[in-house]
Write a structure and sequence with these properties.
The structure holds 3 protein chains of 3 kinds. Chain B is an alpha+beta fold. Chain B is 48% helix and 13% strand. In chain C, 29% of the residues lie in helices and 15% in strands. Classes of the chains: A alpha+beta, B alpha+beta, C alpha/beta. The complex binds flavin-adenine dinucleotide and iron/sulfur cluster (SF4) (2 copies). One iron/sulfur cluster binds next to helix 3 of chain C.
């Protein structure tokens, strides 16, 4: 996989790369160059399959990562193309023109992360959620526990005692350096 | 003028979410002209349990009992994928013992067998051929008996864990497994009679639901669907995992790319699984550990990394995209099931021109599994 | 479409005549497989209520509920399972620290009221209690780490040539790895006399935050580096991980955390109200109890002076415990913090009666922790011969820098830590050493590891040996004469088996020194009679109330002469108690000088 990584570097400028397994490599590239790279890989290098498209929320860095996984059915090699976009008003270029199934992936990411793919046919159309009002739920700052407590309250009469705290209280554990 | 008239003839029907012909809890919104479908849209969400999100909020070990629930008929592939991804990212893969690798291969094949028995029954059931599905479910139950004694559970096994498997093979397992395989084999000719030998099945399956070969690679079609096009794609050969490289088997292919060909691939893979299980049991080491020494699972952290691992499930290429961030919990896990493509983009493309009566058989032949679409 | 394909399906009819493989429910209830994951069972006598099962349950199906009073080593809580949530993953069973939790192979239970589908296995009786089958822990699979990270030690052959510390200490990697074994149950906190925040500092070490660890540690122990090296570690005795594996190396982890810092004052930033401003407290005796009182009162603004007869603070941890276990720089580091906290330290200063009376006049409260300084006598003929010495004297002389000689061979009489220390010190002074102990090896009060270390250094252990007399030989050596003992049942039920001399047999051992180490007691000659009368019991102990105060209002006491455990951490715990007592006493406007 070294050759293809080298070629990508030469053609598309600085990238971040890593060979994860003999048949799986990762490439990090700036968002503007991602789709040109994907197109080139599909059209000239046999990476004709879009295996999946996924998003990762790096909330601490204020970024979303998009990961397109391409497959070359000839060699069975896989390339993971990663790109980080701004978490504020996130948007990325669609690949639905290159791969029909990308429509669903882009629809789902739009729904679950709030990343939009202008020009992709089913943007804004609910896929898994219907009538969802909250923030896109796969974002890291969506509070699952609060959601559950609000919508699906637990069984009544349950009371769990945390052993660690309980022992401290029962045996008079105290601190002397802090009030 | 003509256009409006045409329109007014169009009938809209919701196929599912509760319909015996639907492969699980989903629905297809269809438009009909006469009894011919003109258009269809897949709707999912009836089963959404937010597995991927849940796993981001749990320790790695706590995610382990979750993944099996993504697939009822074939939970083990999910267990293996999560284990293998985390082992790769943590370096634990170097410590998985030999015996564990054999047991895992065994479990994966048992699970494929159980799933294929079920879906082959489904093929017949979706055409109203009653007895076959019942027999197939009964045969599958015999496989579940073996699962029960091996893993302690019939449906959700929670058995393949980071570092290996949770328990050793019980005493006399191989003999009982052989007995089960024999029983299954003895019933297969009868199944052939009532399914592949049936005029109804042949008439409704041959030449129906043909997937054009050109779509195969671009759309990422896999499993029996691609093999029924005569294309020998199988992850067990393409990127062999666990002990598959050491086993003797050929990729099953059929020609025609129709419902019949897909059913036939499954029929032949049932036999293939039976053969593989025999090979595995014959070569399984008798002694040795079945799991690596694990770190304290309540405090396990995995360094920053990402990977994609894949396996051949009965439905096709199942993959896990896993991202870790150095903490005790997953940053992201994305479950890529074959149905995501087969059940949405592919199904929607195949629907126009299909007879409504063929929609259920078509969906079964694509082996659409809604939980793996919406996770 | 051929006729064949029309007829072939009718073959299905053969099935109508074959034996069904379904099992008729009416005849038999099909049992679950041998390792089926069915309803839970729990051996509640074995369960210690650590709560690890509840921690691992990803469904939050487990509540820990009280079923009895907490005691050391058992929280008294037991897991109660909500079957509305349980997914039968059995992670709780596999993680269970004691192996008490299991699952039966029963899988049916019908109940009209779903609320009933919650129970505490082993407490609420169920038909499957005592089930032999079902999911249990198995050899070869563990979700916790049972083996301890081994502690590097100096080679026994090398270490007897030096006074260098035997225990090398964990590297950062080793310490973090060991710390990661903790399941944070907190049972240790109950067992520690000072109730140190153990899971918290272990957690901080695991996360690599050593400053935070030190902050937790110093929160209720002002001599943690000492404890990290020599503590009797009652905590480790109840560690839940230790029930099926080796306990966490709690002592070594504390040691590791303290060793990361040269100057504790730079790391610790006490945030307490300085309620003691303007109040004066005198502390007599610079052992662990006294140091504890002095330090925590000083950070609260009290003006504290500590008086110590020996040239260094530390008490028995200075003059008793050998330097290969607890080196001087470690002690100095801890004393240094005391100074920086503003404690006035007066060493080489033995408080006598008059001064004590004066201290009563000048202070708002007074604490004494003067320890057990007087050795017990052997009580056999020949004890007064030259060459029969006391371990406490030997160790003290050696540690204050006096020249000591033990000759070529010694016998040490006793089985406690003092005996082991005297033996190992003698070994390092060049002698062949034999330990003579009355009971069996398993009865020895000394720490097991210490005994092993001593044996590794070539010290011989003679158990069930009763000293008869000591005689002087022509060659100037001593003849230590002893008789063998047999073990007889204890006088009262629950007591220890007793050694009984087997009459008529005499064994001889030629030695240069007989070192007596059979215990020590309090010494009160320095104490004014009117005080002693009130605070010292007829048996030579000092009794205090729950605030650490003696019968004399305003005089507090702690340490070896108060507690029955006589170890450093108990002395520290006594000190903590007195800190609160003294604070309370003085803040109520009371004062020893006015009483
Ligand atoms: C050899 C030996 C080994 C031990 N090993 C261990 C061990 O491994 N682990 C452990 O936990 N414990 C050990 N101990 C016990 C532990 O050291 C004691 O329990 C602890 O030090 C008791 O503390 P204390 O506060 O009672 O004072 P002590 O340590 O007993 O100190 C009392 C201090 O008071 C001073 N003093 C007495 N009278 C006066 C006076 N009139 N004026 C001024 N000063 C006075 C003494 O000089 C002494 O320094 C050991 C003890 C000995 C002797
Ligand atoms: S079996 Fe699993 S879900 Fe049930 S109580 Fe135990 S850990 Fe929780
Ligand atoms: S883990 Fe085991 S010992 Fe601990 S509370 Fe649960 S059942 Fe009891």
């Amino acid at each position: 996989m070294k050759e293809i990584l080298k070629e990508i570097e030469e053609r598309f400028g600085p990238i971040w790369e890593r060979v994860q397994r003999p048949k799986l490599a990762q490439v990090g590239i700036e968002p503007a160059k991602a789709v040109p790279l994907l197109t080139w890989l599909k059209e000239h290098r046999g990476y004709v399959t879009l295996v999946h498209l996924s998003a990762v929320d790096w909330i601490e860095q204020g970024e979303f990562q998009l990961t397109w996984l391409l497959g070359n059915p000839e060699t069975e090699e896989r390339l993971m193309i990663c790109s980080r976009i701004d978490r504020e008003n996130p948007a990325a270029e669609t690949v639905s023109g290159l791969w029909p199934q990308a429509v669903t992936y882009e629809q789902e990411i739009n729904e679950m992360f709030g990343v939009s793919f202008p020009g992709s046919p089913r943007q804004g159309v609910p896929f898994i959620l219907e009538g969802w009002k909250d923030i896109p739920p796969m974002r890291r700052d969506f509070d699952t526990v609060a959601f559950v407590e609000k919508h699906i309250p637990g069984r009544e009469g349950r009371k769990h005692i945390d052993t660690r705290t309980y022992i401290g209280e029962k045996f008079g554990e105290k601190g002397y350096l802090h009030d | 003028m003509t256009e409006t008239r045409e329109r007014s003839k169009e009938v809209q029907i919701w196929f599912g979410p509760q319909h015996p012909g639907i492969t699980g809890n989903m629905s297809v919104q269809t438009w009909l002209d006469g009894d011919t479908l003109t258009r269809g849209i897949t709707h999912v969400g009836y089963l959404h349990r937010a597995f991927e999100k849940l796993m981001e909020r749990r320790l790695y070990i706590q995610s382990f009992p979750i993944v099996c629930r993504i697939c009822v008929p074939e939970p083990d592939t999910n267990e293996w994928l999560l284990a293998s991804a985390l082992e790769e990212l943590s370096g634990l893969d170097r410590e998985v013992p030999e015996k564990a690798r054999w047991i895992r291969t065994l479990v994966l094949e048992m699970s494929r067998l159980g799933a294929m028995l079920m879906v082959l029954g489904g093929h017949a059931g979706s055409m109203g051929l009653g007895p076959a599905p019942q027999w197939m479910i009964a045969l599958r139950d015999l496989v579940l008996d073996r699962f029960e004694e091996l893993t302690g559970g019939r449906v959700y096994h929670m058995y393949i864990v980071y570092g290996g498997v949770r328990r050793d093979l019980p005493e006399g397992f191989a003999e009982r497994m052989e007995q089960t395989l024999k029983t299954i084999e003895s019933k297969l000719p009868l199944i052939d009679d009532v399914i592949f030998g049936s005029a109804v099945f042949r008439k409704r399956a041959m030449g129906v639901g043909v997937v054009p070969r050109e779509w195969a690679f671009e759309m990422g079609i896999s499993g029996p669907v691609i093999r029924a096009m005569g294309i020998p794609k199988d992850v067990r050969k393409d990127e062999p995992y666990e002990k598959y490289a050491e086993l003797d088997f050929d990729v099953v292919t059929e020609e025609g790319s129709d419902i019949f060909a897909r059913a036939m691939v499954r029929r032949r893979e049932i036999q293939q699984s039976i053969d593989l299980i025999r090979q595995i049991l014959a070569r399984m080491p008798k002694e040795g550990p079945y799991c690596a020494e694990l770190p304290n699972m309540l405090e396990w952290t995995i360094p920053v990394g990402q990977t994609y691992v894949r396996a051949e499930s009965s439905r096709g290429e199942m993959g896990y995209y896993v991202v870790t961030d150095g903490s005790k919990k997953l940053r992201r896990v994305h479950v890529r099931g074959p149905s995501y493509v087969h059940g949405v983009s592919l199904l929607e493309r195949l629907i126009p021109g299909t007879n409504i009566a063929d929609l259920a058989p078509l969906m079964v032949s694509l082996q659409v599994c809604p939980p793996e679409i919406e996770r | 479409m051929s006729l064949k394909h029309v007829l072939q399906p009718f073959n299905a009819w053969v099935q109508a005549f074959s034996k069904p493989y379904t099992i008729p429910m009416k005849d038999t209830m099909r049992p679950g497989a041998d390792r089926y994951r069915g309803w839970h069972i729990n051996d509640v006598e074995k369960c210690v209520g650590c709560g690890t099962c509840a921690d691992i349950c990803q469904n939050a199906a487990i509540d820990m509920v009280p079923v009895k009073d907490p005691v050391k080593g058992d929280s008294g809580l037991r897991p109660k399972i909500d079957y509305g949530r349980c997914c039968w993953c059995a992670l709780c069973v596999d993680v269970c620290t004691t192996g008490s939790l299991g699952m039966s192979n029963e899988y049916t239970w019908v109940e009209k009221d779903p609320e009933k589908c919650r129970y505490t296995p082993g407490v609420d009786a169920k038909p499957w209690d005592g089930s032999e089958k079902g999911w249990r822990q198995e050899e070869g699979f563990s979700l916790i780490v049972k083996d301890r990270v081994p502690m590097p030690m100096l080679d026994p052959k090398e270490r007897i040539k030096t006074w260098a510390e035997v225990v090398v200490g964990y590297s950062v990697e080793e310490a973090r790895k060991e710390a990661a074994r903790c399941v944070s149950c907190g049972l240790c906190v109950a067992a520690c006399p000072a109730h140190m925040h153990i899971p918290d500092y272990i957690g901080a070490i695991r996360d690599g935050d050593f400053e935070k660890a030190l902050d937790f540690i110093y929160d209720n122990n002002p001599m943690p580096e000492m404890c990290g090296k020599v503590c009797t570690r009652r905590c480790e005795g109840v560690c839940s991980v230790g029930i099926q594996g080796e306990p966490l190396a709690i002592r070594w982890l504390k040691r590791f955390a303290t060793e990361q810092f040269e100057d504790f004052a730079k790391v610790l930033h006490p945030e307490v109200k300085r309620v003691g401003e303007g109040k004066k407290v005198a502390v007599v005796g610079g052992g662990p109890s006294g140091v504890t009182v002095a330090y925590y009162l000083a950070v609260r603004g009290f003006e504290v002076t500590i008086y110590e007869a020996l040239p260094q603070l530390g008490g028995a941890t200075f003059f008793g415990i050998p330097k290969y276990r607890f080196p001087m720089p470690s002690l100095e580091k801890q004393v240094d913090l005391l100074k920086k906290a503003g404690v006035k330290i007066v060493t080489d200063h033995r408080v006598e009666k008059d001064e004590f009376r004066r201290l009563l006049e000048e202070n708002d409260a007074l604490f004494f922790g003067t320890g057990l300084m007087k050795p017990y006598k052997l009580g056999v003929p020949g004890e007064d011969l030259e060459g029969v010495i006391y371990a406490l004297d030997l160790l003290r002389d050696h540690h204050v820098g006096k020249k000591v000689e033990v000759g070529e061979s010694v016998v040490v009489v006793g089985g406690g830590n003092v005996a082991i220390d005297a033996s190992r010190v003698s070994r390092r002074l060049g002698a062949e050493v034999t330990i003579a102990y009355r009971r069996r090896r398993e009865d020895m009060p000394a720490d097991d590891e210490e005994i092993e270390d001593a044996e590794a250094e070539g010290i011989e252990l003679v158990t069930q040996s009763i000293p008869l007399r000591v005689e002087k030989l022509e060659n100037g050596k001593l003849d230590f004469i002893w008789g063998p003992a047999e073990m007889v049942p204890p006088d009262r039920p629950g007591g220890r088996p007793k050694p009984k001399l087997i009459e008529g047999v005499e064994n001889h051992l030629q030695v240069d020194r007989v070192i007596v180490a059979i215990g020590q007691k309090g010494e009160f000659e320095w104490m004014p009679e009117e005080v002693a009368e009130k605070v010292v019991t007829s048996r030579g102990w000092v009794e205090v109330d729950e605030t650490g105060m003696t019968q004399w209002p305003g005089i507090f006491a702690g340490g070896d002469l108060v507690n029955s455990t006589a170890d450093a951490i108990s002395a520290i715990a006594d000190g903590l108690k007195a800190v609160e007592g003294i604070q309370q006493f003085t803040l109520e406007g009371l004062s020893v000088s006015k009483s």
